[in-house]
Automatic annotation (TrEMBL):
The keyword Transmembrane applies. Keywords: Cell membrane, Membrane, Transmembrane, Transmembrane helix. It comes from the Bacteria. It comes from Lichenicoccus roseus. GO terms for cellular component: plasma membrane. This is Lipopolysaccharide biosynthesis protein.
């Protein structure tokens, strides 16, 4: 168990630093891009990238997860898997180009089809990086993965920023999306050199492919879950309102998802190694939830407090304000914490060899989200529509988490009490932060949005400082 905890700690530290650096770079450039693009352009780019993310979920057909959890792999399996993945990615790229005109027609924007070239180009790039990245994950080489991720994020962000400042419009965001795939491929091959041989043995990867199909269903469902709201809101309400929703969503969800991705990447190979020991699974799950509670709870509360002043300060290239994103931001920030907790359980299921259960969980939440947003789009007008769509995110998770808690207790004998207890101090610290911000709002001269935002930032920093000191006192000397 100590080995598993050391692996978790090392992975969290390395991937944590990389994820924080990458998200700061990514987030800062996205906000900067708002100055160079109109809401219409941001909305169109969001649609294209959302569709691209769903297509990209087909990468490897789930074989990356299969490779990570496999007991052993041979060199012929790796060679065959590489060509299998690259061939599938090339086929997906061709199908993407073929269907682009139909998708653009569906949205009533024929010019959108040209941007699907970027989606097609990215597929072989990420396919070629799959085996080296999976091998690094399998070997717990978190340091190298961290470096690859940071460099790729920096390269993509720089691409976006340069093209945006040059007036490239939608292409600036779309090209940044492709550039991330290129830099990940280059980084993966440098960090873990892999030279595939030409010979293939299809029979050797059948177990990996079978596992991968089930895991791919979970990945596709997850990406549909992440992007179905963009696609539906863009369809019902158009690109400009999608841009407002996208700004709220990114500000609320990206920080939480950064932590969630970090915890999941760190925990997945460790879950796989502890698959046969239920007691250790509970320990790993408790550790992972503790990190999520500590890092995400105060931040989401801070975003709810900062929603008004922050969105009032954001404008597009025409000077139009993003203030309408404030209420969606508050709702989505509350939902973000519940979302990453749910995704941790999905990661555990994949790690212990239950991808089918993870896929059912993803499909259930996807169905709830899609049907609810469809109902909103058909019945609620544009302005309140994005607020209602944001509220749906908050409404779907409580019943899902109750089902997960019952399943944990029944199948793995993990009681929900200790899992809930890790949120006690972060919630107490967040409550104190709310009081501090409320008091600051009564001070004369702090009514400007920038001043209000500064108060929230200061209160958030004090909250994390207090929680850090508390956590250090709990560590046995």
């Amino acid at each position: 168990m100590q080995d598993h905890r050391r692996a978790l700690g090392r992975g969290f530290n390395w991937l944590g630093g990389a994820t924080i650096a990458a998200k700061i770079i990514d987030f800062a450039t996205i906000l900067a891009m708002l100055l160079f693009l109109s809401k219409q352009q941001v909305g169109i780019a969001s649609l294209v990238i959302s569709i691209g993310m769903v297509v990209e979920a087909l990468n490897g057909l789930g074989t990356a997860e299969a490779l990570i959890q496999a007991k052993s792999v041979s060199r012929p399996q790796l060679d065959t898997l590489f060509w299998y993945v690259v061939g599938a990615a090339t086929l997906v790229a061709g199908l993407t180009l073929a269907t682009a005109p139909a998708v653009a027609w569906l949205y009533g924007m024929p010019a959108m089809a040209q941007y699907f070239v970027a989606i097609a180009i990215k597929q072989p790039l990420v396919g070629a990086a799959l085996v080296p990245l999976a091998l690094m994950n399998r070997s717990l080489q978190f340091e190298r993965i961290a470096i690859v991720n940071v460099c790729a994020t920096f390269g993509a962000a720089l691409t976006r920023l340069v093209l945006g400042a040059s007036g490239a419009g939608v292409w600036a965001l779309v090209a940044g999306y492709v550039a991330s795939g290129l830099f990940i491929m280059i980084g993966a091959w440098i960090a873990h050199p892999f030279r595939p041989r030409l010979g293939v043995q299809p029979a050797s990867i059948r177990p990996l492919a079978r596992f991968g199909v089930r895991s791919a269903a979970s990945n596709i469902s997850e990406q549909m879950f992440k992007n179905i709201d963009y696609m539906l809101i863009g369809w019902f309400y158009g690109p400009a309102l999608l841009a407002v929703y996208r700004v709220a969503f990114d500000i609320a969800m990206e920080p939480a998802m950064a932590v969630g991705t970090l915890v999941n990447r760190t925990a997945l190979p460790v879950f796989a190694r502890a698959a046969g020991a239920p007691a250790e699974l509970g320990s790993i799950l408790l550790w992972s939830l503790g990190k999520i509670a500590f890092l995400v709870t105060p931040l989401m509360v801070a975003l709810m407090l900062a929603a008004g002043p922050l969105t009032a300060l954001l404008h597009d290239s025409h000077g139009a304000s993003y203030a309408a994103a404030a209420m969606p931001l508050r709702l989505l920030a509350a939902a973000a914490l519940l979302r990453i907790v749910t995704q941790l359980f999905s990661t555990m299921m994949i790690g212990i060899g239950r991808p089918g259960l993870a896929a059912r969980l993803a499909l259930t939440t996807l169905g709830l989200l899609a049907c609810s947003i469809l109902a909103v789009g058909c019945t609620v007008p544009a302005g309140p529509g994005i607020i209602a769509a944001s509220a749906i995110w908050l409404a779907i998770y409580p019943p899902v988490l109750l089902w997960l808690a019952a399943r944990l207790r029944r199948e793995w004998r993990v009681r929900p009490g200790p899992l809930l207890a890790v949120f006690a101090m972060p919630v107490a610290g967040s409550a104190a932060m709310v009081l501090v911000v409320a008091g600051g709002g009564l001070v004369p001269g702090l009514q400007h949005p920038a001043s209000q935002l500064a108060v929230v930032i200061a209160a958030t920093a004090l909250t994390y400082l207090g929680l850090s000191r508390y956590a250090r006192r709990q560590v046995p000397s």
